[in-house]
Specification:
Shape: globular
Distance between the termini: 25 Å
Number of strands: 8
Largest sheet: 6 strands, parallel
Helix content: 25-40%
Length: about 230
């Protein structure tokens, strides 16, 4: 086999992927996704960290999550290569889309992810809010995860109520026949409800891939040492 043929074969191989969801909004999905991208890069992988749908523009006219993920990718990506639909109001994406007169297309989102996966070793797709957040009249992030056939990683914000939210999220993931790749616990404040982490470690049916400490001003470089890659990315 020639070098050119080997190169073509590598590019034709589908990228390994992970769909990152959370128990709620504001639990650290972007932080975890960026840190995982840095880990992948540290293993010599070319990685695309994507946020196909985002809402809530900053005062400077940017979408912070998109900026973080495009910079965390290896090689770094443009905004258009990181995000497909972006809405100004800090609302649930389907509602922000409705206010903007936009109908998000399920097939187009899946096609966007696949297009951005070309020549990548792995692709990390971050949702918005929780696993069952809708994106259209009859579909949402759960259906997108089904379309992509990616294992799902759950980010659990450690706070009161996390146990119920995590167990319900995992039930929704597994009910759809999706692989549950693991979970990451994120300490959202120093006063974690006693017993929360220990209970999650006993009850969640997949490995804990990391416990992030309380770090108000985080970076992917600071967080990545606390994480392990899901087995499906090796």
């Amino acid at each position: 086999m020639t070098r050119e043929q080997r190169s073509q074969g590598q590019q034709a191989r589908p990228a390994r992927g992970i769909f990152i969801t959370g128990t709620d909004t504001g639990v650290g999905k972007t932080a975890v996704t960026a840190a995982l991208a840095r880990l992948c890069a540290g293993h010599g992988m070319q990685v695309a960290a994507l946020k196909p749908v985002v809402s809530g523009v900053e005062t400077d006219g940017t979408w912070e999550d998109v900026e973080i993920l495009r910079a965390a990718s290896q090689p770094s990506r443009s905004i258009a290569e990181t995000n497909l639909y972006a809405f100004d109001p800090p609302l649930a994406p389907h509602w922000a889309a409705q206010q903007a007169g936009v109908t998000m297309d399920r097939g187009r989102v899946a096609a966007f992810v696949r297009a951005q996966s070309v020549a990548m070793d792995c692709v990390l797709v971050e949702g918005a809010g929780g696993f069952l957040v809708p994106l259209g009249a009859d579909w949402g992030f759960a259906e997108l995860a089904e379309d992509l056939h990616f294992p799902v990683l759950l980010v659990v914000g450690l706070r009161l109520g996390a146990i119920n939210h995590a167990l319900l999220s995992v039930e929704a993931i597994r009910t759809r026949g999706l692989s549950f790749a693991g979970w990451v616990a994120n300490t959202l404040n120093p006063a974690v409800a006693e017993g929360t982490l220990e209970t999650l470690q006993r009850r969640l049916p997949a490995p804990c891939l990391g416990v992030l400490p309380y770090i108000p001003h985080w970076s992917a470089a600071v967080l990545s040492p606390y994480l392990s890659l899901p087995a499906s990315l090796y």
